[in-house]
Each structure stands twice: as structure tokens, then as C-alpha cells.
Amino acid sequence: MSHAASLLIVEDEPKIARLMTDYLTTHGFEVTTLGHGDEVIPWLEQHSPALVLLDIMLPGKDGLTLSREIRQQWPAIAIIMVTAKVEEVDRLLGLELGADDYICKPFSPREVVARVKAVLRRSQAAADAPAEVQNAPVVLNEDGWQALAHGQDLGLTAVEFQLLRVMMQAPGRIFSREQLMDHMYRDNRIVSERTVDSHIKKLRKKIHEALPELEIIRSVYGVGYKYQPEG
């Protein structure tokens, strides 16, 4: 990760925006702040930040709508949702719409810096990952967060893409639900084993619709799941 990575903070509370800006600038980031949701897309059309810290409750266009639009138009930009809402469904919804992580208010500035660095490390690792799946039934486009089957975009959510990517990095390896959670959500605060099963079910359905003759995500009873492209 470059210490000069550019960040956009979208936060309508000036005190919070200023606090985050001060800490992130101190840690070497270039920071821009916006306070209104309607300003975000026009700004992104002129700039290319590495990451957006995006408050959910904003005047104008709300954070969840913006997250969806950013992921569709600029898939390489990392997104961290910032929310005062603690309901599990809201946090899951933010991640489903393409966010890479979330932070709940009130938070410490140190937590913000740590989350930003962690998300950018994961983004860089994904960009640097070797392309070892060119002949596989499903090919990952890391830059665009797409999974392609015979050139057809499977339309995966960010969570589904991360699940598939983890398993494809180790074909044949059985991942427990807990291991999959550890790879995707290091804080383990929002995801249950049942949630992992739900995401796997949706992922398998999308793959089956494109590749009905193959079962490449397999359940191992009582253990977990594995990616098995052959046999």
C-alpha cells in the first residue's frame, strides 16, 4: 500500500469528518471530504481515490445507494461504510451492496486508520494475486470484482465474490464455515454460520444457472465447503 493513497471521506458531521481527516493525514494519506451525498458521483468522475469512507445517513443521496453506484461504476475503489445504526441487517445490507468493511459509530480514530489500512492491504493483495484460473470453468476478474463463466458475468455480490475467491485459491481444500468467516470478516461481529450457508446457496445457484452441468462448489457434510472444478 502506498503511503500517499488517496481517500474520500463522505460525512455530513464536520467534527467527525475533521477528526478522521486529521488522523488519516497524520498516517500519510491524502484526504478529501464531502458532506453531501449528491456531491459524490460528480467528484468521483474527476478523481480516483483508493478508498471511500462512506457514511450511511447523508443529506441528498444516502450511503447505501452511493455504495451500489460506486461499485457498479468504479469496482476497483474500496468502500468502508460508516454507520450509527447497529442493526445487523443494515450492516449486512451495506456489505451486500459492495462495501468492503464497516465501522460503527462511536468509533476511535485509531480503529478507522486500522480498518483503512487492512482494507487497502486486502485490495492490493487481490490485485497482485496470480492468475491461475484461466482454464477453469469460472474465471475471476479481480479488478472488476467479476466472476465469469464462458465469458458470462455471474453477477456476484461482493460477499459472494470473496467467498468464491477464497475457495478458488485452494482447489480441493475443505473450508469450514468458521474459516470462511475468518477470511472475509476478521472481526467476526456480524456473520453467523447460517449467513455463510445462505451466501453459499446463492453463489451455487448463480453458478448452476451458467454451468448446469457442473457442481464446482461442493458441500462436505459436517465440515464445510470446497471448490472442486474437476471430477
UniProtKB/TrEMBL annotation:
An annotated GO cellular component: protein-DNA complex
Name this polypeptide is given: Transcriptional regulatory protein BaeR
InterPro entries, sorted: CheY-like_superfamily, OmpR/PhoB-type_DNA-bd, Sig_transdc_resp-reg_receiver, WalR-like, WH-like_DNA-bd_sf
Top-level taxon of the source organism: Bacteria
Originating organism: Vreelandella titanicae
Cited SMART domains: REC (SM00448), Trans_reg_C (SM00862)
Gene Ontology biological process: regulation of DNA-templated transcription
PROSITE patterns listed in its UniProt record: OMPR_PHOB, RESPONSE_REGULATORY
GO molecular function: phosphorelay response regulator activity; transcription cis-regulatory region binding
Pfam families according to UniProt: Response_reg, Trans_reg_C
Keywords: DNA-binding, Phosphoprotein, Transcription, Transcription regulation, Two-component regulatory system
